[in-house]
C-alpha cells in the first residue's frame, strides 16, 4: 500500500511560503483513500495545500481528533475547497461540547468556532460515534481511548461548560488515526490529550498488531513534568517506535529531549513536511 503523509498545518513551517499557525492538519493519502485528519485553526491548511499543489477536492473523508478550535477552525475553508455534498466527517459526539480553558481570571472558549448547521450547509455529514471506525481495510480511527497509564493525565484547566457551571473535560472525544502497513502501525495523533502511550496501547489492542512503526503529530507534553516526559520516552522505546515526528502541543522541552534520545529516528513535523512510507 502506498502511503504519503503531508502536514498541512502546524505551529511552525518549513522553508518557502508555507503559513504557520497554532494548530494541526495532516493529510493521509493511500491507494485506498485520501483522509484529512484535522483542519488547523483557520486558513493555513488550505493555503499550504495550494503551495504543495494538493487538490483538496480529492479528499474522501475528514477525521477530527477532538473538538478544539485549533483542530477544527479550518473546517469552513476546507469544506468550501472540497465542494462536495455529503462529505463524511468522522468524530466523537463530544466535539460539540462547550469547551473552555479556565484559570488566571479568564474563561476562554476553545471549542469549534462554527455552528453545526453552518458546516452541514457546506456539505459536512457528521458521523459521530464513540467507537472505532474502519475507514478502509487498513485505516481506522481509535474511538475512545482508555486511560491506563498512571502518569498520563488531562490538564485541569481544560473544562466544559454546562449551563452556568464548569466541569473537568474528560476529552473523551480525543482520538487518533491508525494506518496498518507492512512495517507495522502508523499512528497519527491530534493532541493525544488522553496520553500518547494510552493511545498507542489502545491502537495495539484494537488492531491486534503489536509493531508500532511510526508516530506523528501532537503529544501534549508542553505542560508535562520532566518525570512524565522521561516515562513517555521509556515507553516509546519499549514499544519499539522507529520513526517519531512530533509537533504542535508536544512542547519544545519535550521535543528537544526526544530529539536527543531518538536520534535519526526523530524529526520535527512542521507544516510542509511530506513523508512517503
Description:
The structure is a single chain. This protein is 23% helix and 27% strand. It has 277 residues and is of the alpha/beta class. The chain has one domain: Metallo-beta-lactamase, Chain A (4-Layer Sandwich), CATH 3.60.15.10. The strands form 3 sheets. It has a 7-stranded mixed β-sheet. A hairpin with a 2-residue loop joins strand 10 and strand 11 (165-168). The chain is globular, with a radius of gyration of 17 Å.
Give a brief outline of the structure.
The chain has 277 residues and is of the alpha/beta class. The protein has helices spanning 44-51, 69-72, 75-82, 116-121, 196-207, 226-239, 252-262, and strands at residues 3-9, 25-30, 34-37, 61-63, 87-91, 99-101, 108-109, 124-128, 139-141, 158-162, 165-168, 177-181, 184-189, 212-218, 243-247, 266-268, 274-276.
Keywords:
277 residues; Metallo-beta-lactamase, Chain A; six-stranded mixed beta sheet; 17 strands; 27% strand
Task: Report the uncertain regions.
Answer: none
Rough outline: globular
Strand content: 25-35%
- Strand ordering within the main sheet: 8-5-4-3-2-1-17
CATH class: Alpha Beta
- CATH fourth-tier homologous superfamily: Ribonuclease Z/Hydroxyacylglutathione hydrolase-like
Q: Output the number of helix runs.
A: 7
Helix amount: 10-25%
CATH topology value: Metallo-beta-lactamase, Chain A
Mean pLDDT: 96
Q: Sheet bearing the most strands, described?
A: 7 strands, mixed
Distance between the termini: 9 Å
Structural class, judged by helices and strands? alpha/beta
Amino acid at each position: 500500500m502506498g502511503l504519503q503523509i503531508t502536514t498541512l498545518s502546524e505551529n511552525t513551517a518549513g522553508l518557502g511560503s508555507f503559513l504557520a499557525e497554532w494548530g494541526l492538519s495532516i493529510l493521509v493519502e493511500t491507494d485506498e483513500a485520501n483522509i484529512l485528519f484535522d483542519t488547523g485553526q483557520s486558513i493555513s491548511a488550505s493555503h499550504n495545500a495550494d503551495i504543495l499543489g494538493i487538490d483538496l477536492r480529492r479528499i474522501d473523508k475528514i477525521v477530527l481528533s477532538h473538538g478544539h478550535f485549533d483542530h477544527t477552525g479550518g473546517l469552513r475553508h476546507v469544506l468550501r475547497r472540497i465542494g462536495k455534498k455529503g462529505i463524511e466527517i468522522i468524530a466523537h459526539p463530544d466535539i460539540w461540547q462547550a469547551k473552555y480553558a479556565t484559570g488566571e481570571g479568564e474563561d476562554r472558549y476553545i471549542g469549534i468556532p462554527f455552528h453545526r448547521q453552518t458546516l452541514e450547509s457546506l456539505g459536512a455529514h457528521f458521523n459521530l460515534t464513540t467507537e472505532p471506525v474502519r475507514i478502509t481495510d487498513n485505516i481506522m480511527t481509535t474511538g475512545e481511548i482508555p486511560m491506563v497509564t498512571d502518569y498520563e493525565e488531562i490538564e485541569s484547566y481544560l473544562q466544559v461548560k454546562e449551563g452556568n457551571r464548569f466541569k473537568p473535560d474528560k476529552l473523551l472525544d480525543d482520538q487518533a488515526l491508525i494506518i496498518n502497513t507492512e512495517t507495522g502501525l502508523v499512528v497519527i495523533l491530534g493532541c493525544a490529550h488522553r496520553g500518547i502511550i494510552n493511545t498507542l496501547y489502545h491502537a495495539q489492542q484494537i488492531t491486534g498488531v503489536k509493531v508500532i512503526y511510526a508516530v506523528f503529530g501532537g503529544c501534549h507534553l508542553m505542560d508535562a513534568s520532566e518525570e512524565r516526559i522521561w516515562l513517555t520516552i521509556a515507553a516509546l522505546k519499549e514499544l519499539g517506535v522507529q520513526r517519531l515526528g512530533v509537533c504542535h502541543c508536544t512542547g519544545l522541552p519535550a521535543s528537544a529531549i526526544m530529539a536527543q534520545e531518538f536520534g535519526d529516528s526523530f524529526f520535527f513535523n512542521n507544516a510542509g513536511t511530506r513523508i512517503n512510507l
